[in-house]
């Protein structure tokens, strides 16, 4: 069940080589027990190019018998998939659109509201051509009034509709904070369970390419303490489509965080209907030495650093936490129990960010399993500057990740 | 009852008196449905539309129902006042006495398929929508039998099965929600409308204009009702609004100014608005009303207005008195019968309070229910993070 990630080339184009297999499917009904297969310690390092390497530490003794298992399972799954479901290749924004379109076809109550989502097709083309297909009443162009159209989405959700509200940039949703916090998150509770709010609020956030301070915001940290909402962050076309569909089908309000720079990622995804569990983390690369927890764009920085680390002899386990609220402490905990070292790499701000909460959660629950203090690499606590070099230094770079792992594993 | 009663005949009045003393089991409240034609107290003022006529049709039955409902609401609010002072109700308690005509008149013009959403002064609107006294008092006192299971409080009354959407604490935030309800009604082709109520203080919120703009653009059956009681907590309307003609604020959206203390005028206006909204999109209603209590129980209500003003309004414009005079002048019931209704209502309220007092407080496990619609197995902790530790169901 080793997950193969697509090699990350230059930072500019994050396209992937399509020949490798995709992240294994996760079905909503599969209980967490199914991941028990990962509990078997694997001392095998599976490289991004598919070749298998033995880890150079003393624990490699037991590697022989496990290699066959790991490779066999992987080959089976990839062989089965390539023969029966070749899948199709697409970009992340197309995957989001596919997910949205399929859900809109499946359930007539799903509608989309946002600025320029209809006739314009969406500022990141996520809703392109949907208005032509479903009409103006289901794909609604709103005026620039985030507070009220988010409120309207919530009001519509109270009656049973399933709106998908798009913030053109996550930062604009700050204007709708009152509606998201007080009405979206709390109405189910304050009405004693009478109303559910099955709304999806989505939009791109994160630091882009010199977009300036106000358009490079990470709102995960602001929303994380609102009770009653769920937050997920997608990072690959596969999980983007899966999370979008799961979020629409969920009865809880879900905030889906996308990233401006990840919209053009290419991946091969299955043809059939699938969803990703909203509360589950994704094992990107199993390892032994250190657990690296990350989400969204930083996943690619981490994987880039992982290549360097592997060359240096380290074996990082990379987990894309995906579910920002609630944390998948089961997967994370199993990993911590295995590696005893944790590094969190995130794009959120240092102060009060997702990493800060995650550090607290891990320390509380798994303190006994930790051999070293948790390290958390986050963005600097500054507004994102415009100048390219400065902007690069506000977010975590792969070199810093390598240094951190080296420090952690000393 | 074979008695047919005519508005102008005094013979039937005298006919009724001996019977009423004879029948001691039930008070003979008129169930007459012959129409009575009356005029509203003042004509409507319209903006960008034709005002409805001043002449309203009603029946004896309806007038007596109005009287009873408003008396019940008045009694309920006064009782809530005493309960608050007895510290059985805590937090914020915003009372609606004086404004009952708006809730009752509006309900008379609507069906249960139409949605109503309002702000925090929601006790009476909840009652009008079919809530029971027990649910009200239990919720106010934070008990299990409350409409929101004791977890909402005074500002969070909801009744889904009769399309009452609350009950909101943040000023103005309910109006975009209300336009969303109207959107859902249009989407599902319900042929129903949404009344989104707000106050003169909330009328200055930007989100109202945003929501109105979107509603007008998309032709939503939304009716924005400004319950203008002339004070936004302690700030009089002339100090908060450059233009206190709230019914004109829609600009492109038509508006109607209504005497909110006259339940028949309210009913007429709401019927008119419903018809209008179903055909032409949003309309604003401004209800000129008044609250006798302060903004909430922590506000004496007399620092920013004179007691003379309050008593003046009570003498001249009180909605219950108006209906009482109408009923008496048209001989639809005797003074004694009306007093009996009031006594009955008082008893009902007292019974409900007694019942609510007996009701238990919510179980501690209720702290964690209804956070999420579907269980996530998420853990929640108490302050010490060890003793109280529960999984959110």
UniProtKB/TrEMBL annotation, chain A:
UniProt keywords, alphabetically: Oxidoreductase, Pyruvate, Thiamine pyrophosphate
Name by which UniProt lists this protein: pyruvate dehydrogenase (acetyl-transferring)
Protein origin, superkingdom: Eukaryota
Pfam families the record matches: Transket_pyr (PF02779), Transketolase_C (PF02780)
Entry function: The pyruvate dehydrogenase complex catalyzes the overall conversion of pyruvate to acetyl-CoA and CO(2). It contains multiple copies of three enzymatic components: pyruvate dehydrogenase (E1), dihydrolipoamide acetyltransferase (E2) and lipoamide dehydrogenase (E3).
Cofactor field: thiamine diphosphate
Matching CDD domains: TPP_PYR_E1-PDHc-beta_like
Catalytic reactions on record: N(6)-[(R)-lipoyl]-L-lysyl-[protein] + pyruvate + H(+) = N(6)-[(R)-S(8)-acetyldihydrolipoyl]-L-lysyl-[protein] + CO2
TM ranges: none
EC number assigned by the record: 1.2.4.1
Domain Transketolase-like pyrimidine-binding, first and last residues per copy: 90-265
EC class name: oxidoreductase
Signal peptide from the UniProt entry: none
InterPro entries linked: THDP-binding (IPR029061), Transketo_C/PFOR_II (IPR009014), Transketolase-like_Pyr-bd (IPR005475), Transketolase_C (IPR033248)
Automatic annotation (TrEMBL), chain B:
Domain of life of the organism encoding this protein: Eukaryota
Location of the Dehydrogenase E1 component domain: 68-363
One Pfam family here: E1_dh
Cofactor: thiamine diphosphate
Catalytic activity, as annotated: N(6)-[(R)-lipoyl]-L-lysyl-[protein] + pyruvate + H(+) = N(6)-[(R)-S(8)-acetyldihydrolipoyl]-L-lysyl-[protein] + CO2
Keyword terms, alphabetized: Oxidoreductase, Pyruvate, Thiamine pyrophosphate
EC class (word): oxidoreductase
Transmembrane segments: none
EC annotation from Swiss-Prot or TrEMBL: 1.2.4.1
Gene3D superfamilies for the chain: 3.40.50.970
The protein's assembly and partners: Tetramer of 2 alpha and 2 beta subunits.
Role summary: The pyruvate dehydrogenase complex catalyzes the overall conversion of pyruvate to acetyl-CoA and CO(2). It contains multiple copies of three enzymatic components: pyruvate dehydrogenase (E1), dihydrolipoamide acetyltransferase (E2) and lipoamide dehydrogenase (E3).
Name this protein carries in UniProt: Pyruvate dehydrogenase E1 component subunit alpha
Organism: Hibiscus sabdariffa
């Amino acid at each position: 069940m080793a997950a193969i990630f697509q090699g990350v080339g230059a930072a500019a184009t994050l396209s992937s080589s399509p020949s490798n297999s995709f992240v294994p499917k996760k079905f909503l009904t599969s209980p967490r027990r199914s991941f028990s297969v990962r509990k078997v310690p694997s001392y095998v390092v599976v490289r991004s190019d598919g070749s298998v390497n033995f880890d150079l530490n003393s624990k490699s003794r037991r590697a022989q018998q496990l290699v066959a298992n790991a490779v066999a399972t992987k080959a089976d799954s990839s062989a089965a998939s390539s023969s029966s479901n070749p899948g199709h290749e697409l970009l992340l924004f197309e995957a989001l659109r596919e997910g949205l379109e399929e859900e809109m076809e499946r359930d007539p109550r799903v509608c989309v509201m946002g600025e320029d989502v209809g006739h314009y097709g969406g500022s990141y083309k996520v809703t392109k051509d949907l208005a032509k297909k479903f009409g103006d009443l289901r794909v609604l162009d709103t005026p620039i009034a985030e507070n009220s159209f988010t409120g309207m989405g919530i009001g519509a959700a109270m009656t049973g509709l399933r709106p998908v509200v798009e913030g053109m940039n996550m930062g604009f949703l700050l204007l709708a904070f009152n509606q998201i916090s007080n009405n979206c998150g709390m109405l189910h509770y304050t009405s004693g369970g009478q109303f559910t709010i099955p709304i999806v609020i989505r939009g791109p956030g994160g630091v882009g390419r010199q977009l300036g301070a106000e358009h490079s915001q990470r709102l995960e940290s602001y929303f994380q303490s609102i009770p009653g909402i769920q937050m997920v962050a997608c990072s690959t076309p596969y999980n983007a489509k899966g999370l979008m569909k799961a979020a629409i089908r969920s009865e809880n309000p879900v905030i889906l965080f996308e990233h401006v720079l990840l919209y053009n990622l290419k991946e091969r995804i299955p043809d059939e209907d699938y969803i990703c569990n909203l509360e589950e983390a994704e094992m990107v690369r199993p390892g032994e030495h250190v657990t690296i927890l990350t989400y969204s764009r930083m996943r690619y920085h981490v994987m880039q650093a992982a290549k360097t680390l592997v060359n240096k002899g380290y074996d990082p386990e990379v987990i894309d936490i995906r579910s920002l609220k609630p944390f998948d402490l089961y997967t994370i905990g199993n990993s911590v129990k295995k590696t005893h070292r944790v590094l969190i790499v995130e794009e959120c701000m240092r102060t009060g960010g997702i990493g800060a909460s995650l550090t607290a959660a891990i320390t509380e629950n798994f303190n006994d399993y930790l051999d070293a203090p948790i390290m958390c690499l986050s963005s600097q606590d500054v507004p994102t500057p415009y100048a390219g070099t400065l902007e690069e230094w506000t977010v975590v770079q792969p070199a810093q990740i390598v240094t951190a792992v080296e420090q952690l594993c000393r | 009852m074979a008695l047919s009663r005519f508005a102008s005949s005094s013979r039937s009045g005298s006919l009724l008196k001996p019977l009423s003393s004879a029948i001691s089991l039930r008070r003979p409240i008129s169930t007459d449905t012959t129409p009575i034609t009356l005029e509203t107290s003042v004509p409507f003022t319209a903006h960008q539309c034709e005002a409805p006529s001043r002449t309203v049709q009603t029946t004896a039955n309806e007038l007596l129902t109005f009287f009873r409902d408003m008396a019940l609401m008045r009694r309920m609010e006064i009782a809530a006042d005493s309960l608050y002072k007895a510290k059985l109700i805590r937090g914020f308690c915003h009372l609606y006495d004086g404004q009952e005509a708006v809730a009752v008149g509006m309900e008379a013009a609507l069906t249960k398929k139409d949605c109503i959403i309002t702000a925090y002064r929601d006790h009476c609107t909840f009652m009008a929508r079919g809530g029971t006294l027990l649910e009200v008092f239990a919720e106010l006192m934070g008990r299990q039998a409350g409409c929101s299971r004791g977890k909402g409080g005074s500002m969070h009354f909801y009744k889904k099965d009769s399309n009452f959407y609350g009950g909101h604490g943040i000023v103005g935030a309910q109006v975009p929600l209300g336009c969303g309800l109207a959107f859902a009604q249009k989407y599902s082709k319900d042929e129903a409308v949404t009344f989104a109520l707000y106050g003169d203080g909330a009328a200055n919120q930007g989100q109202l204009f945003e929501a109105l703009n979107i509603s007008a653009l998309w032709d939503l059956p939304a009716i924005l009702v400004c319950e203008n009681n002339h004070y936004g907590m302690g700030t009089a309307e002339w100090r908060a609004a450059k233009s206190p003609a709230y019914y004109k604020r829609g600009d492109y959206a038509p508006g109607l100014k209504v005497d909110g203390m006259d339940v028949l005028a309210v009913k007429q206006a709401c019927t008119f608005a419903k018809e209008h909204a179903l055909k032409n999109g949003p309309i604003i209603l401004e209800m000129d009303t008044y609250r006798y209590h302060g903004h909430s129980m922590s506000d004496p209500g007399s620092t920013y207005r004179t007691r003379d003003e309050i008593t003046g309004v009570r003498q001249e414009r009180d909605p219950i008195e108006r209906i009482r005079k109408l009923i008496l002048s048209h001989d639809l019931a005797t003074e004694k019968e009306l007093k009996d209704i009031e006594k009955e209502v008082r008893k009902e309220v007292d019974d409900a309070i007694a019942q609510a007092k007996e009701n238990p407080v919510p179980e501690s496990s209720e702290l964690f229910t209804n956070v999420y619609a579907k269980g996530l197995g998420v853990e929640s902790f108490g302050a010490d993070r060890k003793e109280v530790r529960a999984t959110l169901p």
